[in-house]
């Protein structure tokens, strides 16, 4: 199922939350299911859809929610939220486009305002327009193999957009970090140790075998196929050496420890 939900930045600063975390726990006011796609419309002074997320978990009680009270502008609403159930939204894509402003959505099939959760399956024109806007945006594709947040444990699903992009696995990414640890396995950089709470949970995940070389759908091995690395080392892993090939994480580590 695909949905639009509305986020009021005067009550909860969803933009800052996603700048710090790759997922947020959102109060659940409809029968969302794991795997649902959620487009977040930021109302008030923003007035556009900015985020595409995947539902990773549902019916989460307050005691298991990531406590992000610092992003709640309205503290009264924060207290009220403690009585609700939550779903975990993993960020798949962030976009900054006036094509997703309220007026454009109205021109492409939106009826009325965006308030409560809105199912998109019956709104064919609107859904098609939103998906087209996200598919055409590649502003967040810094590294072709960086593993963003997505749900399926099966990877691949090749797309042709401005550059080749691939659907990735939030479960695999999270399991990779849980297994290997949230630090760079090339230079040992630990962002939380270096920057405190600001750096908590920040790391890139590098795919050892580029999916552009695999092409077909396959089941990812989060232990052997993925490795956490810092952005600097990640960039170096995408630079060819004198022989015209890419270094492995092990080779890059050996290079910097000489």
TrEMBL record:
The keyword Nucleus does not apply. Keywords: Endonuclease, Hydrolase, Nuclease. It comes from the Bacteria. Pfam families: HNH (PF01844). Residues 184-239 form the HNH domain. The keyword Acetylation does not apply. One of its GO terms (molecular function) is nucleic acid binding. This is HNH endonuclease.
């Amino acid at each position: 199922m695909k949905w639009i939900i509305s986020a009021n930045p005067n009550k909860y600063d969803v933009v800052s939350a996603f700048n710090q975390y790759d997922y947020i726990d959102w109060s659940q006011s409809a029968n969302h299911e794991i795997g649902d796609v959620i487009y977040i419309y930021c109302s008030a002074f923003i007035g556009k859809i900015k985020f595409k997320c995947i539902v990773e978990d549902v019916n989460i009680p307050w005691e298991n929610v990531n406590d992000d009270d610092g992003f709640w502008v309205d503290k009264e609403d924060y207290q009220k939220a403690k009585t609700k159930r939550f779903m975990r939204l993993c960020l798949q894509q962030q976009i900054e486009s006036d094509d997703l402003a309220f007026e454009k959505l109205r021109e492409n099939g939106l009826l009325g305002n965006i308030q409560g959760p809105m199912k998109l399956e019956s709104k064919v024109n609107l859904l098609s327009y939103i998906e087209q806007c996200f598919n055409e945006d590649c502003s967040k594709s810094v590294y072709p193999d960086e593993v963003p947040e997505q749900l399926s444990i099966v990877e691949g699903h090749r797309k042709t957009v401005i550059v080749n992009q691939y659907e990735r696995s939030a479960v695999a990414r999270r399991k990779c970090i849980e297994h290997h640890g949230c630090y760079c396995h090339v230079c040992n950089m630990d962002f939380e140790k270096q920057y405190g709470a600001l750096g908590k949970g920040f790391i890139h995940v590098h795919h050892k075998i580029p999916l552009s070389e695999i092409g077909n759908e396959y089941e990812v091995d989060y232990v052997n196929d993925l490795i956490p690395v810092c952005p600097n080392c990640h960039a170096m892993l995408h630079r060819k050496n004198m022989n015209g090939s890419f270094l492995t994480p092990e080779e890059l580590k050996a290079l910097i420890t000489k």
